[in-house]
Backbone:
């Protein structure tokens, strides 16, 4: 099967310092992947590079999405192709309601102009499926949101925008068990044969709810190991020091 996403010998630097040092991997439709690794290993850098953040400079290698070379493609064009990134630290935007923000994002990604009332119905239905109250969508974007609410808002965005590839950058970080269950429910509802999920996490607990098909372990800018879900248990028992290149 042709991969949905293919990374070939990727090298990335930030402010002159190399962070990613030659990563190659493939992601296929219909599968859930997990990327684990210690702090500073380059996981979030990889997520940002896949989304096209201009802060990160690709010095070598290529990225292909659905057979198209997107190495130098702008973030908005990647979003239109079907790539979504759930941020580790979602920003607060005062004066902009969650509903209006997401409606504009939807119109941009889908290249359409859906009426407000029609979009409101879609959003409320998606929110209900994630056990989120209607009032949540009328609040200013992430303003006054708890950490868990911000992460759930990201999952709601993913559900509404309906990308082909969803990259979740430590969406489970700082969540209690109930919030993790809601996030997991959102991912399971989203996941279908024509979708792919790439979960970046430190912890086993979310992967107990969302079983990955493949697990990658990253350290010092490189993929040092990969395997099935049993690799998560190995990490839990032995830590990253127990993983050999």
Residues:
């Amino acid at each position: 099967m042709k991969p949905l996403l293919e990374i070939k010998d990727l090298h990335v630097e930030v402010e002159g310092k190399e962070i990613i040092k030659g990563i190659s991997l493939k992601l296929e439709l219909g599968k859930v992947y997990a990327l684990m690794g210690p702090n500073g290993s380059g996981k979030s850098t990889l997520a940002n590079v896949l989304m096209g953040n201009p802060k990160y400079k690709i010095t070598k290698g290529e990225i292909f999405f659905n057979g198209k070379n997107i190495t130098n493609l702008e973030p908005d064009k990647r979003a239109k192709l079907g790539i979504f990134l759930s941020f580790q630290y979602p920003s607060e935007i005062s004066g902009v309601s969650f509903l209006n923000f997401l409606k504009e994002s939807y119109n941009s990604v889908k290249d359409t102009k859906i009426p407000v009332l029609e979009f409101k119905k879609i959003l409320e239905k998606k929110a209900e499926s994630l056990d989120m109250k209607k009032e949540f969508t009328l609040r200013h974007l992430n303003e006054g949101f708890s950490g868990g609410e911000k992460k759930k808002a990201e999952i709601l965005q993913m559900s509404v925008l309906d990308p082909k590839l969803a990259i979740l950058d430590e969406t489970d970080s700082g969540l209690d068990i109930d919030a993790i269950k809601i996030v997991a429910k959102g991912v399971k509802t989203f996941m279908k044969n024509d979708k792919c999920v790439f979960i970046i996490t430190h912890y086993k607990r979310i992967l107990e709810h969302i079983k990955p098909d493949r697990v990658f372990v990253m350290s010092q800018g490189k993929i040092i190991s990969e395997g099935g879900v049993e690799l998560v248990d190995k990490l839990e028992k032995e830590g990253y020091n127990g993983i050999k290149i």
Notes: The chain has eight helices and twelve strands. The two ends are 27 Å apart (CA to CA).
